[in-house]
Design a protein that fits this description.
By secondary structure, this protein is α+β, with helices and mostly antiparallel strands. The chain is about 25% helix and about 30% strand. Strand 10 (about 315-320) and strand 11 form a beta hairpin. Its main location: nucleus.
Amino acid sequence: MPPERRSRTRADRRAGAMPGKKARLGSGGTPRKAARSSQRTPQAGQTAAPSAVTAVAAAAAAEEESRLRQRNRLTLEDDKPAAERCLEQLVFGDVEDDEDALLRRLRGSRGHLHESSDDSEVEDEAKDSLPSQKKPVWVDEDDEDGEIVDMMNNRFRKDIMKNASESKLSKDKLQKRLKEEFQHAMGGVPDWAETGRKRRKSSDDESEEDEDDLLQRTGNFISTSTSLPRGILKMKNCRPANAERPTTARISSVQFHPGAQVVMVSGVDNAISLFQVDGKTNPKIQSIYLEKFPIFKACFSANGEELLATSMRSKVLYVYDMLAGKLIPVHQVRGLKEKIVKRFEVSPDGSFLLISGIAGFSHLLSMKTKELIGSMKINGRIGASTFSSDSKRIYTSSGNGEVYVWDVNSRKCINRFFDEGSLYGLSIATSKNGQYVACGSKSGVVNIYSQDSCLQQTNPKPIKAIMNLVTGVTSLAFNPTTEILAVASRKMKEAVRLVHLPSCTVFSNFPVFKKSAVSRVQTMDFSPRSGYFALGNEQGKALLYRLHHYSDF
């Protein structure tokens, strides 16, 4: 082969292209230089070409593999039931186009579980900081005014009223009041009711964090129980309730207003005084003076709108209208032939007035009209009388130690029983929850009965006999929560005890005998929510005590 053809053939083979006219130009001079430059250019092309071919081949192989996998999946899907295919789609998501998405999702969730606890806490804090609910742009006040709830039509709503002015509340205020009552009963907001609370990833982490919190703070780790503990009663001696109107006359009645933070004090000095209770100064609100009328007993009506008073030597019943500020004397009750009206009781529902007469007669009057409804008679003299908490029954203690139970509607005796060990009954009281009946006798014994046994048995056995007093029990009072029973005798100094229920044990820290400040107790009462305890003595002082276990008045 001639030299020119050999060089042309070699150059064409190296270039990997079809020979052009310049390639056939010869063997020397300028054509040789062109041939050398053409030899250097294809070397870069030779390096790029295999990589491009490899990429194209890999893409084709991946596409073929994906196509085969898709065909196999479709074949398997045809064999599966429709329910199974639906369940897989709900659990794993829609991965028809790309099954690798499922693998990436699983890897992502696994990596998320291995993230640090600090990052998760930061995210939780960021979520908690976000506003939970958007505020309304505009609120119609007329709609809010129309949503008024009557608190007097429901006996459960009556219990959460703080004063008489709250006879009607809006739905929002009622909801807040119910929330406050719930938190008070639970001792705070329970964990399950807290909003925005951080959620731990596991119980082990939660226990470890609780231990860390326990070691990083100090304080009282024993929370206050909702029920009153026995043994020691935490209380504080406050300034006397009638300190702004001092007197030396015997106190005959002390009672807290059922709806306002007010206490009433009356005595044989012919005066009835009202004081605002704050535990510090107890400022006087007003005093009512009844001429030649030494007060034997004074009492609020059930709704707190009226104040009733009787004297030791008169048959007149005074009624003071607290809203109008008017004093109304009731000189004669139609059908009532009693010469002197002294002892009386007001029913808890405010419907009836019970007057204890002579010769064993009890007279039931209408509280609204002050007219006689009917009379009941027992054997012997009447020692004391009281209504049940639901105002459906009347308990009368007689002078021979027998207790009569009357039905209010029919005014018939439904049961009678002997107070165990009693020869002469002086006082009787029923608990607010309808559970207990306490009978005080002349011997100083207080028997605590179950109300059910008093209604069904003719010889009931007392739950407990309190024998801490040695003189006649003249005063008995249950607190509104039925956790304390106060017993007292006016015959002896410091003769007063507070009994814990249901254990029926006496609190050891009251009264303080070394101070001898109580003297002879004439009357006593608890505030509507047991926050205060008051008692009046023969020295003209209305002693006031703050019970720390109860947060409200």
